[in-house]
Amino acid sequence: MVNVRAMELESLTIDGARAAVASGDTTATTLAELHYERIEAKDIEINSFLALSRERALQQAAKIDALAAKGDALPPLAGVPVGIKDVLAMQGAPATAGSLILKGYRPPYDATAVAKLEAAGAVLLGKLNCDEFAMGSSNENSAYCPVLNPKALDRVPGGSSGGSAAAVAASFAVATLGTDTGGSIRQPAAFCGVVGVLPTYGRVSRYGLIAFASSLDRVGPFTKNVKDAATVLQVLAGQDVMDATSSDRPVDDYVGGLTKPVEGLRVGVPEEYFGEGLDQEILVAIDGVLAGLKAAGCVVKPVSLPHTKYAIPTYYVIATAEASSNLSRFDGVRFGLRDAEAKTLAEMFRRTRDAGFGAEVKRRILLGTYALSAGYYDAYYRKAQQVRTLLTRDFLTAFAEVDVLVAPVTPTPAFKLGEKTDDPVKMYLEDIYSVAASLAGICGVSVPCGETKGGLPIGVQVLGSHFGEATMLRVAHQVETSQKKAC
Amino acid sequence: MTEQAGVTIDDVRRVAELANLELTAEEEPRMQRDLNAILGHIAQLNELDTAGVPAMAQVGEMLGGLLQDRGEALREDAVRPSVDRAKVMAAAPETDGRFFKVPKVIER
After folding, report:
1. Any CB–CB contact under 8 A between B61 and chain A?
2. Do B56 and A389 touch (CB under 8 A)?
3. Residues A139 and A240 in one domain
């Protein structure tokens, strides 16, 4: 086992892990133990894992090792150590959603996405820190302390799936699951220098996901490279009878499609994503990406998404309105925290929710309740739903002319802890390049495309049309390949 | 919706009551300030004339032409096993194993 110990976890990919287990160079058990050792040694400063599920992981690893010993064909994620964002149910493990109100709760079932990963051979290491109920852009809203950015410990990892991005960046897991409601996969992927995929709305089941905003919430993977992302998405995608919003549309061959030529593909550059406020170093990096795509034979052309500036206000009406409804289920009756002193039911609801929810969650519940309340419904909620139509039409129009869009993920690289916590609007504006795709339901992927002079990761986002994951990932793969050549 | 939305402390209290939240005396002015700031930002939606634009509740309806994309496929309506009751009840703060117990609902 000396060779295995020397193996660099940093460069371990899905194919590498699976091949090493299949050939007998290592075992799934060893891979799990090595990752746990690394987590125990280094996660003290990063704080990405909230709970470890060692027993379940080692049982699964033993099962994979038995398959490998028999020489059986191994499933696509055989022996691959993965982590799960703490908003997804994993039977027997805690599911806090980063909130005190769910402290101690252990769901009695698996989310479909979690079950699918395990059925494909993945080893579930544990649950990952996140902003409370996935509400945040920095992971500073977790009730269980913020996650730090492994690439720069004075910086945030992004949010809300900060633990999922950080765990891959720190090589605590080969892949992780996150969720994206307004940018919560793409933004932390960009901040931590890993790949993060937002699948099309309806492509991946949300059964077992603790709901934040149901018309926006999506589940997707974080990985170290685009091929791994395609491999995990291939496992996750498809209809689920337990989620009526999951699509019955056939799943494309994402992995096989990666190596198809990109020559002739039309790449749109939305001018509204390159305006005032965009960091100069990010702009230069994206220009480099576009030059690489041109060199590879893509046709790069400007497009317009004219309603882009209205995406943030639209999002913060719709997401908070849906959240105010979804989060009414946390009332101290069926699970989680309860105020034991309350004398009446109404008092118990209020005191439990006051003690259990953090400031940002209360702020959003109040905003959403206000937007839905009598006299304001048309002015806020209905208006936002109409603008959502305009934002979606922008994308449908653009995708009639181009195959993918390429744009920055964030206006700045990872910011410092505490830098934006005092001003909610400033924090919300962090999502300026990510929320429109969320509202429109299209797919997107954040791919690393360089570093700032200060060594902070820069991400570029490739956006695909509805169910256009195969083409989107193909272009992302080309971006990654050009990057490697440039280095 | 006006440029200055003007949420008052009374509005904050009323909305908190609707949302079953009990805010402390320190939380109320902070929430008032934040709600006004956010609603001020949201007010820019008024720049857009949306007369005649349909409201969009979710993505599927925008893809109406492509029936397969609509994500409306419902499963067969058949009896199937659900999550084990004992496991569900075990997660409750207070239960007799069959019912969730709560403080009294009606004052008398």
Report:
1. no
2. yes
3. yes
Question: Of A378, A397, A422, which residue sits at a domain end?
Answer: A378
In a domain, A481, yes or no: no
Residue A218's alpha-carbon distances to A208, A396, A422, B58, in angstroms, are 12, 20, 28, 13
Question: Is B1-49 CATH 1.10.20?
Answer: yes
- CA A275 from chain centre, in angstroms, equals 25
A107, with CB counted inside 10 A (0-12, 13-18, 19+), is buried
Kindly state whether residues A244 and A271 are assigned to the same domain.
no
Contact yes or no for A363 and B31 at CB 8 A: yes
How many angstroms away from the CA of B87 is the closest CA of chain A? 6
Nearest to B91 among A106, A241, A317 (CB): A106
Does one domain contain both A191 and A273? no
d(CA A204, CA A206): 7
DSSP A449: E
Alpha helices in A71-194 (DSSP H): 112-119, 162-169, 186-192
Picking from A90, A366, A378 by the largest number of B CB atoms within 10 A of its own CB, the best residue to mutate is A366
Please judge whether A386 and B37 are an interchain contact, meaning their C-beta atoms are less than 8 angstroms apart: no
CB count in 10 Å sphere of residue A405:
25
d(CA A476, CA B45): 33
A365, A373, A396: residue with CB nearest B21:
A365
- Please list the rounded mean pLDDT of every run of 10 residues in chain A (487 residues): 62 96 96 97 98 98 97 96 98 97 95 98 98 96 97 97 98 98 98 98 97 97 98 97 90 97 98 94 98 98 98 97 97 95 94 95 97 92 97 97 98 95 88 96 98 97 98 98 78
Within this chain, do residues A119 and A187 fall inside the same structural domain, yes or no? yes
Residue A177, Cβ density class (10 Å: 0-12 exposed, 13-18 middle, ≥19 buried): buried
Nearest to A232 by CA among A448, A445, A9, A466: A445
Pairing of strands A195-198, A218-223: antiparallel
Q: What distance in Å separates the CA atoms of residue A322 and residue A216, rounded to the nearest whole number?
A: 9
Q: Does B4 touch chain A (CB under 8 A)?
A: no
Same domain? A299 vs A393: yes
pTM above 0.90, yes or no: yes
Range(s) of the domain holding residue A274 = 266-307+387-471
